[in-house]
Amino acid sequence: MSGIYVVDASIAIKLYIPEVHSAEAIRFFSDGHELIVPEFMLAEFGNIVWKKATLLGELTEAEAKTIVDAVRELPLGYYYTSGLLTDALQNCAEDQANGL
């Protein structure tokens, strides 16, 4: 069943680098769902690729560039979270007032 889903960098990276549940991620992206991401997802994704290329040595520089270029082509809707800041602050204040 199709729907609207929020995905993050930890799911998107599985499309390009074999990891646990990569097959499920590939199938999920292929199922015709409407996928939205927070605007900072690309920064998180880039950080994962950078770590795998520079710190872990799992990717060459060329592979990292190819992956970063490819993720920009995914049919994702970007959701800008800056408008949620005031609401998030209010929710935190309410939680604190309620002892949570």
C-alpha geometry: globular
Residues in β-strands, percent: 5-15%
Query: What is the overall pLDDT average?
Result: 91
Termini, distance in Å? 36 Å
Main sheet summary = 3 strands, parallel
Number of E-state strands: 3
* CATH fold assignment: Rossmann fold
Give me the Rg, rounded: 17 Å
Name of the level-1 CATH class:
Alpha Beta
- Describe the strand arrangement of the main beta sheet, using strand numbers: 1-2-3
**Helices and strands, in N-to-C order?**
EHHEHHEH
State the helicity in percent bands.
40-55%
CATH-derived architecture = 3-Layer(aba) Sandwich
Stretches where pLDDT falls below 50 for ≥5 residues?
A: none
Indicate how many domains the architecture comprises.
Answer: 1
Secondary-structure class = alpha/beta
Description:
The model has no long low-confidence stretch (mean pLDDT 91). Strands 1-2-3 form a three-stranded parallel sheet, with no helix packed on it. It is globular, with a radius of gyration of 17 Å. The longest helix has 15 residues. The chain has a single domain, classed as Rossmann fold, CATH 3.40.50.1010. With 100 residues, it is α/β, with parallel strands linked by helices. It is built from five helices and three strands.
